[in-house]
Amino acid sequence: MVRYRGITKSFGSHQVLDRIDLDIRPGEKVALIGPSGSGKTTLARLLMTLEEPTSGTIEVDGEQLWHMERKGRLVPADEKHLHRVRGKIGMVFQHFNLFPHMNILRNVTEAMVLVQRMPKEEAEARALAMLERVGLQERTKHYPAQLSGGQKQRVAIARALVMQPNIMLFDEVTSALDPELVGEVLDVIKNVAAEGEMAMMLITHEMDFARDIADRVLFTDGGRIVEQGTPEQIFENPRSERLQSFLTRFR
Ligand code: ADP
Q1: In the prediction, which pLDDT does 221 show?
Q2: Which GO terms describe its cellular component (predicted)?
Q3: What is the residue with the minimal CA distance to atom 21 of ligand 1?
Q4: CB within 10 Å: which end of the chain, N or C, has fewer?
């Protein structure tokens, strides 16, 4: 589904990712853990085409992000190509980034209508079904400012899910929430994960959540994937000293 090859990313002289290779299979749930500044968000932003790599390639579903084939040759991607590839990826951020002047229903329908050119009635039917799935069917006429942080984040998740991406990126989606609101958001993500088909990349500091949900856990440090394995391998039998010392902070 996703293939990173030799991905290096520098900001000026600061190298934040160093020759990353990473494959994510269709439906696979991958959790990224690691100290802050280790490059996790940059990895996700590259996939979302919010950043361009310094070197290396990323493929989604067999198509390169920054290049496309034309007459058997790879040429720089045009907007149409980027648009199509981006459509396969959904992202939810730490800060919900809802449209403040639109009610909840419209926040969820907007991209279906504008980007996917779906008729409004169909978009609304899908949005309502998705809002029900995240437990917000009573809030469709409210505005973002009238919701709690946990509710806002559930709207952001519904808004990404209705676009039916092949892979969803969740970047520290609970870090900005009051502790008592974290559980409701993690439960929604767990339910979506349990349905299976969609691949997920989850950047998180919630170790129990990573353990519950992930098929594979990657530990990043200093711009490299230092260790990876099943949740059992990573949390019960960490091999590297760096991972062992990182995990002691959560015990
Ligand atoms: P993490 O998600 O693991 O905390 P990030 O990917 O956010 O790590 O950041 C990795 C490093 O890249 C950090 O040192 C950060 O300051 C730097 N960085 C990220 N984005 C930019 C940017 N747009 N310009 C300059 N430096 C950046």
Answers
A1: 96
A2: plasma membrane
A3: 11
A4: C
